[in-house]
Amino acid sequence: VKSSAPILFAITAIAFIQTFDGPYLSLYVEGIYAAMGGSDKAEIVNLAYGSTGIISAVASVAAVLGSIVTGIVMDRKFPGWIWGIVAVVAGIGGIWMTMDFSLFGLGAGRFIFSFAVSGLGSVLVVLLGRLTPPSKTGSVFGWSVTVRSLGWVLAPLSGAWTASHFGWKPAFAVEALLCFLIVHLFFYLSRRFDAADPPDESDEPSMSQVGAARVSEPPVSGKFS
User: Fold this and answer.
1) How would you write the pLDDT of the chain (225 residues) with one tens digit per residue?
2) What angle separates helix 82-99 from helix 168-181, to the nearest 10 degrees?
3) Does residue 206 sit in helix, strand or coil?
4) What pTM did the predictor assign?
């Protein structure tokens, strides 16, 4: 588990970044409509809810596309350092949301942001599988679920606190800053990935391997397993 600690930390960071703006996204959209000159509070709220749903749906589509593209790229063995560049792209999407106070700016920035961040999340799964010995796969992947949940818990609390004390734009700026801060981490992980040796075949088999062997073994005549 210790050798996988940097990847587990990165998984926590990605989960944190993905859900950081959840508490204030609809309020941000409501502020955009209010700045456009809307006077009817109820109408503004209704428009904000509808637009937030559309923007979230667009971001979800971007996340799906990001995961698919990531899988294709990883299969073709592109240079590992490219994922540091993807982290920069995610940060650019966050900056766009900060600088362009409009529905188009929010939608476009969030599309870029979700596409890149989702791709980074998929990369971490591949890295974890490559750098984890077979006998430790179950425990390490269990820890990955735990640390991802930790990021999901901490992000809404942190995002709500940041937006309430500093405003929505600074909160989006924090989201972008976090993307830039993990760039060095992804460069480090890419170097580890490129230098990693194949899993040691002499390592103790994992439970899944033992189960597969038991199923594939032909029964011994006169004996029951």
Assistant:
1) 566 888 899 999 999 999 999 888 988 898 888 888 766 788 888 888 899 999 999 999 999 999 888 888 877 766 667 888 889 999 999 999 988 888 999 999 999 999 999 989 888 888 888 777 777 888 888 888 999 999 999 999 999 999 999 988 888 899 999 999 998 888 888 877 777 655 454 444 444 443 444 444 444 444 444
2) 170
3) coil
4) 0.78
